[in-house]
Amino acid sequence: MDRFQAMQVFVRVVDVNSFTRAADSLALPRTTVTTTIQNLERHLGVRLLNRTTRRISLTPDGAAYYDHSQRILADVEETEACFQEAAVRPQGKLRIDVPASVGQRILVPALCEFHTRYPDIELVLGMSDRRVDLVQEAVDCVIRGGELEDSTLVARRIGSFQFLTCAAPSYLARNGVPHTLDDLKNHTALNYFASRSGRNYNWDFVIDGQVHEIEMPGIVSVNDSNAHLALALQGFGLIQTARFIALPHVLAGELIEVMPQYKPQVLPISLLYPQSRQLSPKVRVFSDWVAELFSRCPLLRGGDGTEACHDVRYAELSQSAMRAPRRGELAEPEYAI
After folding, report:
1. pTM of the model
2. For the chain, what are the domain ranges?
3. CB of 10 within 8 A of CB of 69?
4. Per residue in 78-131, pLDDT tens?
5. Which one, out of 60, 246, 250, 265, has a CA that is 20 to 30 A from the CA of 22?
6. According to CATH, what is the number of the domain 92-159+268-295?
């Protein structure tokens, strides 16, 4: 029995709480994982896991062995990385998960550049607005908006998004243009709801340094950024959305910003990964590349699109924003990003 491999298999089974998921993430047959754990228990002379048809749990001996195994595996990985990282090109499968709007509008247009730099990395890109369990789902890193709440993760700030309130001209023609927060009482919102709780996110505005939240009435709520934008373009109601999403449609006259004097909160954007003593080379280079990608354009660092942009994909957008004329009163959370 390969005791080192058995230790790796055992730790993965405990981390993902499943023999099947452990087998999938290790690219091993499930029977191999089961046999490995059985042989390990036989070798140690103790029972490590309690198994039922629906769940597994650690025995006291299993918990102690798990803690020791984690430390040993981390030490081995760190030792090997010290000697190999400088000589070996980052390679292997990299599983990431990002909000759909970030993936479609920012990452996907630039992935050829990443592949050219790191051709030996196979990217597995998930795009969703749901909260992913990195350990349970064997995901290496995620990009998320908001402040870090999970103490088991490490966050690297890569940028921030400014938001705006806007609507289609057809909606404003029917309902009028709001100028103050009180005016919003007479308007309908397209709300965005949290996938986990099902509750709509409140709207917010920063006034004199204070955040004011408003619960907006609406006739439609969604939890997909593309649907959110599409319904706004059809004139269903007002929306609050990230400026980088709305700006092309504002410049085209398909959406009109309202109450520009009342800015929503700026949303920090971070790359998150599990705590570990040694960050893998493939996660490190992806983290550095994404941070570089965001740094090229002020629009991805909290800007409003009027600043010069050094990224060719956003240069035309930013220059157009600087030329866009104002139109008088119709001048051009977790959040839906």
Report:
1. 0.66
2. 3-84, 92-159+268-295, 163-265+317-330
3. yes
4. 777 765 654 467 888 999 999 988 999 899 999 999 999 999 999 999 987 777
5. 60
6. 3.40.190.10
